[in-house]
Model the fold of this input.
Amino acid sequence: VELALEVEDLVMHFGPVRAVDGVTLRIKQGSVVALVGESGSGKSTVGRCIVRLLEPTDGTVQLAGVDITHLSRRQLRQHRRNVSIVFQDPAGSLDPRFTVGDIVGEPLRLMRRKDIPAKVREALRRVGLRPEVAQRAPHELSGGQRQRVSIARALISEPRLLVADEPTSALDVSVQASVLNLLADLQRDLGFACLFITHDLSAVEYLADEVAVMYLGQLVEQGPRARIFGNPSHPYTQALLSAAPVPDPAEQRARRPVLLGDDLPSAIDPPPGCRFHTRCPVAVDKCRTVVPVTRTIGEAGHQVACHLVNDDGTGPDVRPTKGV
Ligand code: SF4
Ligand code: MG
Done:
């Protein structure tokens, strides 16, 4: 299978802060991988390395087979069209000095394309905005409309990969679903691959083909969505999912979230051994000293890093039994 993205042993340190510490991740052409975890786990930093807003400390990032890890600004320009990013806060990412039309068309101008106004109109139409919006300034639009503008801009160059970093979490709850639906429709119609960075697990269930769970700069579990939701193996994944809202109020009441207690430990001096051991309800002595290796368990593509998970995927379950 052709890969849209191949991240190998990615490391991003900011001085003493080990924000990302050895992340390996692949995204197949046209598929959606959700990157989930608490805030501060390093998810956004992974996204920024992939679009090369950050130059990684170590490891490699390949986009459609091209290693972009250390390309210069000038070299990067040729690969810009392969990847785009949509940020959490559309207000912060749209320059107020320009019109919507200028903003959406800018990637094409950098690529010296022709017929930009027509392409801008088409890009706006795709995201559900009328052509007149091109004349407006971003601050004249609502939050939801501004996020549609960022999406139009991100997709106008027809990238193979879209990094969407919490694309709906800064929006009013009332418009979150429509922007999420839009992304899902565009992904299906245009077929780009997507790294969907989020802590909204109901959005993950709706949008993602695969799920990667991040904890303190590292991936602890990844695999097909149905497998992760139906059969989470890592105690952290189990805790995360137990706290996720579900549509059925009765089931919601019956679910008892696993309480993780303390906050996420500091990425300056992460715990030795398994980084999750300070909060893991089933930690054993070994967890405090020995780093668990990432292994494939059960069906292909399901990977987990935990000493107590067996090769067939069975192992600890930290969730209290559901119901009464
Ligand atoms: Fe918990 Fe140990 Fe597994 Fe880490 S390796 S998740 S501390 S049981
Ligand atoms: Mg973030």
Q: What stands out?
A: The first strand starts at residue 3 and ends at 14. The radius of gyration is 20 Å.
